[in-house]
Amino acid sequence: MAVKVNKDMTINEVLQLDRRTAPLFMEFGMHCLGCPMSTNESIEDACATHGVSADELIDQINDFFEQNTL
């Protein structure tokens, strides 16, 4: 069963599921994956801060998990 990520999750939660998702965040300009905000800021809030689409990022992350089931 594939993991389903949503905009309310934190970057850290997704990275804990699979560290191989890190490049997806970096492609969206989120290069500081170890910063304190990654542990308590939602993906939606992080995307707003970086001026990128949360929906597009979530789609790419969920595509990753569909192709790489845990």
In short:
With 70 residues, the chain is mainly alpha-helical.
Counting DSSP E segments of at least 2 residues, the number of strands comes to: 0
Shape: globular
Structural class: mainly alpha
Helix content: 55-70%
Oligomer: single chain
What kind of sheet is the major sheet?
A: none
Helix and strand run: HHHHH
Radius of gyration computed on alpha carbons: 11 Å
- Beta percentage is under 5%
Figure out the total of helices. Answer: 5
Distance between the termini: 8 Å
Mean pLDDT: 91
Give start-end ranges of low-pLDDT stretches.
none
List keywords for this structure.
single chain; 70 residues; mainly alpha; globular
Question: Strands, helices and their partners?
Answer:
Elements: H1 11-17, H2 22-27, H3 37-40, H4 43-50, H5 54-67
Helix pairs in contact: 4-5
Protein architecture, described:
This protein has one domain (11-67). It is 56% helix and 0% strand. It has five helices and no strands. It has helices at residues 11-17, 22-27, 37-40, 43-50, 54-67. The radius of gyration is 11 Å and the shape is globular.
